[in-house]
Amino acid sequence: MTISTAKPAFAVDKIRREFPALEREFNGKKLVYLDSACTALKSRGVAEAVSRFYETLGACGGKRSTHLLAQAVEAELIRARQAAADFLNAESPNEIVFTSGTTEAVNLVARAFPYDERREVVLTDLEHNAVFLPFYEAARRGEIELKFCRSRDGRIEPDDMVKLVGDKTALVAITHASNVAGGTQGLAEIRKLAHGRGARLFVDDAQFVSSHREDVRTLNADFVAFSAHKIGGPFGLGVLYGREVELNSLRHYKVGGGTVKSVRWDGKGMPEVTYLDAPMRFEAGVANFAAFPGLTEAIRFLRAIPEAPLREHVSSLVRRAAEGLARIPEVKVLGRRDDLSEGSLVSFYPVHKEFSVADFNLFLNHELGDRFVALRAGEHCAHLLHQSLKLDGTVRLSFFAYNTAEEVDLFLDGLKSYAKEACA
After folding, report:
1. Which of these is catalytic: 38, 60, 381, 423?
2. Are residues 80 and 296 in contact, defined by beta-carbon separation less than 8 angstroms?
3. Measured distance CA(186)–CA(53) in Å, rounded
4. pTM
5. Cα 261 from chain centroid?
6. DSSP 8-state symbol, 290
7. Which architecture characterizes domain 12-37+306-422 according to CATH?
8. At what angle do helices 291-303 and 44-56 cross, to 10 degrees?
9. Distance between CA 360 and CA 302 in Å, rounded?
10. 47-303 has which CATH code?
11. Edge-to-edge strands of the sheet including 120-124?
12. For an engineered disulfide with 330, which of 14, 38, 212, 419 has Cβ 3.0 to 4.6 Å away?
């Protein structure tokens, strides 16, 4: 008897059936969705989890009221915090702070970090504006000084970072996977460098966790952030990971209901406030409770897909797209092909003077028969990188578990047709 050693096929058809938007028609056209780096589509399970919350619960959590309904709502928050901790392999759910997204997570760290004699923050030119701008504003307020490490072909070289990280560095902030350049960044040497110089490390995982399994214990960064909508979860919810000692060393970012342990008069007619420890001390106000069951379901769905087949599937789509683009002379791919396959997206830009990105986008929406392609064109909220590259904009294809090789080929055929018409 012969035992087969062939790898089981990736069940993309089964996955696709869980995403109703892929079956819808928009003005009589079926969707080819290559814009998951902006936001992943929502599964039926996520939509049902959010809807079920509003239909059957719809109240505040149990830290405010203590009735049975409030306790049921609080249980959803607790489940989501534990799910996020398990997703990142955090040691404790107390290491998970809920925010409105990666943007708020970065603002929290940028504003609350306890800068002392160390006032330098090192960024890279790969950073999304969500990472760049909070630190830029802190520098404008005179709180910190910024240094920038420039990328090479979409990569940050540790040797370049060595020149910037020193005894005055408070924090190094870097993306794990650029939302334009693609691929992933090797962070082990950068973490070792930062910690060796006494600095902290913040990692933007927004474009990483959709097709990689993050292990914060192995990564050993001080802070990690991602947004629920990047993994098919609800909008308006994000995760900031930090070791408890690091979180509790941060200053207050925003305060209000839910952050206070006690308020007492001090005997001199003034109130004396004691705040809760992390994570509650950072979660002021009424939470986006309906999003928590949606996040829990999005994490459950993603974790149910075996890691190795998921990575190989997404890598194969990136390789197919990059190789196809390389054969089209009117455009040029960003980054190095071998590096790109580590990530989940490919970006390119036109090199022919008659190629109009705006017209091409219209072409993809209206000239492909019964299909249309959704993708992203522009600066992708990554203005620093486009300035470094001296480009006005790029076109980005980004992939998730539900994408197929046929979709890549349909896009490439559309690109060839447009180039033939516009650049003849």
Report:
1. 381
2. yes
3. 40
4. 0.95
5. 32
6. T
7. Alpha-Beta Complex (3.90)
8. 150
9. 33
10. 3.40.640.10
11. 96-99, 238-242, 223-227, 200-204, 169-175, 120-124, 145-149
12. 419
Which are the contacts of 191, defined by CB distance < 8 A and separation ≥ 6? 201, 219, 220, 221
> SS3 breakdown of the chain: % helix, strand, coil, rounded to 5?
40, 20, 40
Is 253 strand, coil or helix? coil
424 residues of the chain, pLDDT tens digit each? 444 444 557 899 999 999 999 999 999 999 999 999 999 999 999 999 999 999 999 999 988 898 999 999 999 999 999 999 999 999 999 999 999 999 999 999 999 999 999 999 999 999 999 999 999 999 999 999 999 999 999 999 999 999 999 999 999 999 999 999 999 999 999 999 999 999 999 999 999 999 999 999 999 999 999 999 999 999 999 999 999 999 999 999 899 999 999 999 988 889 999 999 999 999 999 999 999 999 999 999 999 999 999 999 999 999 999 999 999 999 999 988 889 999 999 999 999 999 999 999 999 999 999 999 999 999 999 999 999 999 999 999 999 999 999 999 999 999 999 999 989 7
Q: Which two tokens stand for residue 266?
A: 């001090």
Q: Are 201 and 191 in contact (CB under 8 A)?
A: yes
- Note if 381 is an active site residue: yes
> Is 272 exposed, middle or buried, given 0-12, 13-18 or 19+ CB atoms closer than 10 A?
exposed
Do 12-37+306-422 and 47-303 share a fold?
no
According to DSSP, residue 352 is labeled S
Are 411 and 373 contacting, i.e. CB atoms less than 8 angstroms apart?
A: yes
CA dist 384 → 160, 166, 236, 350, 380 (Å): 17, 23, 25, 19, 10
Which helix (DSSP H) or strand (DSSP E) does residue 50 occupy? helix 44-56
Six-digit token string for 391: 């480009």
